C-alpha cells in the first residue's frame, strides 16, 4: 500500500543547513508537500512540488525530488531557532487522498 | 479570509457518549478530509469526501462516521467513543490540486 517514511529527529546548529529526507512508495503521486507544525499549532504548508518537477526553490527552502528513487528532500538554508518544529512530508494520490510521513522533529541549537 | 474552522477545539468526554466535531470551510472546495495525529505516527486519514454525498474511507475509519450534506460542512461523528480515540484531529479542505487548507485542530480526550 501507500507509505511515506521519514526519520524522526534531526539536530543542527543555528546558521547551518538542514536537510530533511522523505521516501514514498506510490509512483502515481501528483503533488508532494512539506508541512511545518510548531508546538501546539496546526499544519502550515511550507512548499510543494508537482511530481514532474525535479527541484523547487523558495527563499531559504529548496525541495529536491528524485522520482526514480521516490525520494524527496527539504533543505533549509541558514537554519534559525525559529525553524525548530516538526516537518511532515506528504504525497497526494488520486481521489483527494493525502498520505503523511511520521514527521521529523527538527531541533536547532544556538 | 479563506479558512477552515473546527469546533470544539478541546473536548474531554467519557467512553460511549456520542459526540460530533464540526468542520466548515468557506472556499467552496470539493474535497474535505479528516485526519488524526498521534505521536510517532504522523497524520492518518480517517475519511475523505470528494463532493456532496460522496465520501470514502481513509486509512483508519473504524469507530468514526462522516456526512457531507452540504459542500461547506463535513462533521466527524464518534457514535461510541473509546479511549483509543484520544487524539488530535484535523479537518482539511482543498480543490484536489495543490494546497490543502487545515483547520486549527481539535484535541479530544476520552476517559
In short:
With 110 residues, chain A is mostly beta strands. Chain A has strands spanning 4-6, 9-13, 18-24, 31-37, 44-50, 55-58, 61-66, 71-76, 85-93, 97-100, 104-109.
Structural summary, described in words:
The complex is a heterodimer of chains A (110) and B (111). Chain A is mainly beta and 110 residues long. Chain A is 0% helix and 58% strand. Chain A has no helices and 11 strands. In chain A, strands 2, 4, 5, 9, 10 and 11 form a 6-stranded mixed β-sheet that branches. In chain A, strand 4 and strand 5 form a beta hairpin. The model of chain A has no long low-confidence stretch (mean pLDDT 91). Chain B is mainly beta and 111 residues long. Chain B contains no helices and 11 strands. The radius of gyration of chain B is 13 Å and the shape is globular. Classes of the chains: A mainly beta (110), B mainly beta (111). At the A-B interface, strand 10 of A face strand 4, strand 5 and strand 9 of B.
Topology:
The complex is a heterodimer of chains A (110) and B (111).
Chain A lengths: L3 E3 L2 E5 L4 E7 L6 E7 L6 E7 L4 E4 L2 E6 L4 E6 L8 E9 L3 E4 L3 E6 L1
Parallel strand pairs in A: 2-11
Antiparallel strand pairs in A: 1-3, 3-8, 4-5, 4-9, 6-7, 7-8, 9-10, 9-11
Chain B lengths: L3 E4 L2 E4 L5 E7 L5 E8 L3 E10 L2 E4 L7 E2 L9 E3 L8 E8 L6 E2 L3 E5 L1
Parallel strand pairs in B: 2-11
Antiparallel strand pairs in B: 1-3, 3-8, 4-5, 4-9, 5-6, 7-8, 9-10, 9-11
Q: What attributes characterize this protein structure?
A:
heterodimer; A: 110 residues; mainly beta; 11 strands; 58% strand; B: 111 residues; 4-stranded antiparallel beta sheet; 0% helix; globular
* Chain-averaged pLDDT of chain B: 94
Q: Structural class of the helix and strand makeup of chain B?
A: mainly beta
Helix content of chain B: under 10%
Order of helices and strands of chain B: EEEEEEEEEEE
The helix/strand series of chain A, from N terminus to C terminus, equals EEEEEEEEEEE
Question: What does the largest sheet of chain B look like?
Answer: 7 strands, mixed
Amino acid at each position: 500500500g501507500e507509505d511515506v517514511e521519514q526519520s524522526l529527529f534531526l539536530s543542527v546548529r543555528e546558521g547551518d543547513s538542514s536537510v530533511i529526507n522523505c521516501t514514498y512508495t506510490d509512483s502515481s503521486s501528483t503533488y508532494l508537500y512539506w508541512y511545518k507544525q510548531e508546538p501546539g499549532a496546526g499544519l502550515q504548508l511550507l512548499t510543494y512540488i508537482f511530481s514532474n518537477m525535479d527541484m523547487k526553490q523558495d527563499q531559504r527552502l529548496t525541495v529536491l525530488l528524485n522520482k526514480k528513487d521516490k525520494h524527496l528532500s527539504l533543505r533549509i538554508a541558514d537554519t534559525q531557532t525559529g525553524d525548530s518544529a516538526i516537518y511532515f512530508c506528504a504525497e497526494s494520490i488520486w481521489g483527494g487522498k493525502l498520505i503523511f510521513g511520521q514527521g521529523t522533529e527538527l531541533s536547532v541549537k544556538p | 479570509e479563506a479558512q477552515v474552522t473546527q469546533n470544539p477545539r478541546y473536548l474531554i468526554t467519557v467512553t460511549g457518549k456520542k459526540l460530533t466535531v464540526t468542520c466548515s470551510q468557506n472556499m467552496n472546495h470539493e474535497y474535505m478530509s479528516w485526519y488524526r495525529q498521534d505521536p510517532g505516527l504522523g497524520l492518518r486519514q480517517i475519511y475523505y469526501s470528494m463532493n456532496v454525498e460522496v465520501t470514502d474511507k481513509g486509512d483508519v475509519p473504524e469507530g468514526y462516521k462522516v456526512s457531507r450534506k452540504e459542500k461547506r460542512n463535513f462533521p466527524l461523528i464518534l457514535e461510541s467513543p473509546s479511549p483509543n480515540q484520544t487524539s488530535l484531529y484535523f479537518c482539511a479542505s482543498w480543490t484536489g490540486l495543490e494546497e490543502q487548507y487545515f483547520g486549527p485542530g481539535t484535541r479530544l480526550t476520552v476517559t
